[in-house]
Amino acid sequence: MQSPFIVELNEQNFRQVLEGSMQTPVLVHFWAPMSQESAQVIPDLQMLAQQYNGAFTLALLNCEQEQMIASQFGVQAIPTIALFVNGQAVDGMGGPQAIETIKEMLTKHLPSQDEMILKQASELIQSGEHAQALPLLEGLDDTVKQKGDVKLTLASCYLETQKFDQAKALLEHIPLEYQDNFYKGLIAKLELHAQAANSPEIQSLEASLSQAPEDADIANK
């Protein structure tokens, strides 16, 4: 499986990969073709790496081909899983493991899926791409969407994408401790829109637009 999150460890790259754990955790899977159990779990691990979308790097080490590296790590059993963070092994398991058990180990050390989605949405918002961030935020778990800071971020996206009714509904239920300057700025934007919508010029324009299809029909007859 070709992926930027999955690498095959060898003598040329293993130091570089482990140094990469200073920025992104690295999950090393020690396996060998002779061990069916160690080979069988690889597709599940690859799928997991894709689901986490870069929160960790999956490094596969074929212990038959790379015996020197395996011996440097002191691997006693195949398969063995080891998680490296900041260049150090912080967790690991020896022997066959269910993918759910490996997930539980990762959960202790990695951000949750919702946290990663929030981070991705925040980066899009900072780039001014509110329309792209909106579906990510809307797809979050309901318990996450109930948090005050998430509600404010979502309301901001609604305002920027001109979904004013949705923004208003959210801003009416912001807990007091989250009613900061950012919240006040969003309220001000919403009020400005409401004032503009009620201005005679806008009402006149809306009225003429609503008649425009009829005029077009008459012109086509």
Notes on the protein architecture:
It is a single chain. The chain is of the alpha/beta class and 221 residues long. The chain has helices at 14-19, 36-40, 42-52, 67-73, 99-109, 113-126, 130-138, 142-145, 148-160, 164-171, 181-197, 200-220; strands at 6-8, 26-31, 57-62, 80-85, 88-94. 21% of the residues are buried. It is 57% helix and 13% strand. The chain is elongated, with a radius of gyration of 26 Å. Strands 1-3-2-4-5 form a 5-stranded mixed sheet, with helices on both faces. The longest helix has 21 residues, at 200-220.
Summed up, what is this model?
The chain has 12 helices and 5 strands.
Distance between the termini: 61 Å
Q: N-to-C SSE series?
A: EHEHHEHEEHHHHHHHH
* Strand content bin: 5-15%
Strand adjacency order, main sheet? 1-3-2-4-5
The residue fraction in helices comes out at 55-70%
Apparent shape = elongated
Total helical elements: 12
Low-confidence stretches: 213-221
Structural class: alpha/beta
Largest sheet: 5 strands, mixed
Number of strands: 5
* Radius of gyration, whole Å: 26 Å
Mean pLDDT: 85
Which helices and strands, and how do they pair?
Blueprint lengths: L5 E3 L5 H6 L6 E6 L4 H5 L1 H11 L4 E6 L4 H7 L6 E6 L2 E7 L4 H11 L3 H14 L3 H9 L3 H4 L2 H13 L3 H8 L9 H17 L2 H21 L1
Short descriptors:
221 residues, alpha/beta, 12 helices, 5 strands, disordered C terminus
